[in-house]
């Protein structure tokens, strides 16, 4: 094979040979640097980061403890089981209807056995839900009452004292919970509704409190009355702005806008009858609404 042809391509000048040598040395140095250099990034420890990590561990621990907690079981009076509550407990529609029909006669069940007799639920369901039942103290201590009745004829009782009727606007949660059928939840709703309205102006407003049965409302009307406080700040329907009117619980924004429009086109309102002419005005609440307004 004749290599003379390639010889001319392999002939380098002095400067070219020096350049190739320098390039070779650079490659070797770079390779050695890459081989022995430490490219790991040293992470700086930040005090704030350590603090946040400690805080996150505490949060994770609290979540774990919270997840291990058993749910709180609340006892309830079975006389006031609603359709939804009965459904959640596993009762059929017919069983719930039997209880509601029994309660419409103003009767009460006073034991788990009576509850089963009225509703007709199975023994297995009764065993499941009866531990959740809570009857009033006088029912649970009925045996003590019977023993006291035996001495009725021998004890001289004072003349019956007329029950004091309290102002619903001054009632505390403890006062409300003395009413049969009202617990902590319903009493809180009543007080919250009073706070939203500023005060109650009629006992009929108890119908606006969600969860109050007609029987409980009747009990409230028997033991409480309404005394409108002099500090009640009434809404001047002729001067109030759209925002002020829309914040009134009985007025929605659309109705408040119609009131302002009607007022600007027809002049001031003179009474609740003028106001009732507006479309979608809650006429059935007119008497109550009028006590919150002035003209």
Indicate the topology.
Layout: H1 4-7, H2 14-36, H3 47-68, H4 83-89, H5 93-104, H6 112-119, H7 123-129, H8 137-140, H9 142-150, E1 166-167, H10 173-177, H11 184-197, H12 214-223, E2 224-225, E3 235-236, H13 242-246, H14 253-266, H15 272-276, H16 286-290, E4 293-294
Parallel strand pairs: 1-2, 3-4
* Radius of gyration over C-alpha positions, nearest whole angstrom: 41 Å
Oligomer classification = single chain
What is the molecular shape?
Answer: elongated
Query: What portion of residues belong to β-strands?
Result: under 5%
Keywords:
295 residues; mainly alpha; two-stranded parallel ribbon; elongated; 16 helices; DNA polymerase, domain 1; two-stranded parallel sheet; 4 strands
Structure description:
With 295 residues, this protein is mainly α. Among the domains are: 78-139; 166-225, Orthogonal Bundle (DNA polymerase, domain 1); 235-294, AF1531-like domain (DNA polymerase, domain 1, Orthogonal Bundle). Helix content is 52%, strand content 3%. The chain is built from 16 helices and 4 strands. The protein has helices at residues 4-7, 14-36, 47-68, 83-89, 93-104, 112-119, 123-129, 137-140, 142-150, 173-177, 184-197, 214-223, 242-246, 253-266, 272-276, 286-290, and strands at residues 166-167, 224-225, 235-236, 293-294. The strands form 2 sheets. The protein has a two-stranded parallel sheet with strand order 1-2. The longest helix is centred in the N-terminal third of the chain and has 23 residues, at 14-36. The radius of gyration is 41 Å and the shape is elongated. The termini are far apart. The model is unreliable at 152-161 (pLDDT under 50).
